[in-house]
Amino acid sequence: MNPVVEQIYSLKNEMIHLGYAEGEVNAFIHDVIGDKTIASLDSQECEELYDYLSSYVSFAKKSKNLILGSSK
Q1: How far apart are CA 18 and CA 36, in angstroms?
Q2: Which residues of the chain have pLDDT under 70?
Q3: What CA dihedral angle connects 29, 34, 36 and 42, to 10 degrees?
Q4: Helices in 1-72 by DSSP H: which ranges?
Q5: How many CA atoms lie within 13 A of 55 on its CB side?
Q6: Model confidence, pTM
Q7: SS3 20
Q8: R_g of the chain computed on alpha carbons
Q9: CB contact set of 13 (below 8 Å; sequence gap of 6+)
Q10: Cβ-based neighbour number of residue 70 at 10 Å
Q11: What local confidence, expressed as pLDDT, does residue 68 receive?
Q12: Are 39 and 1 in contact (CB under 8 A)?
């Protein structure tokens, strides 16, 4: 399996752990790749999806830190 594909699945799980619903994550993925499967993506498409999902993870982490920081 392409290492980036493994990282995409890891990001997907991280997003769910950070509070996104699985359906939301799947919708984000669909916005980028349409009806393709993650496993069928070429290297360029994998990188684009990885970058896209990474931005959501980064946003969720920043938001979570702001919330946790403000409750102290």
Answers
A1: 25
A2: 70-72
A3: -80
A4: 3-17, 22-33, 43-70
A5: 7
A6: 0.86
A7: coil
A8: 13
A9: none
A10: 7
A11: 78
A12: yes
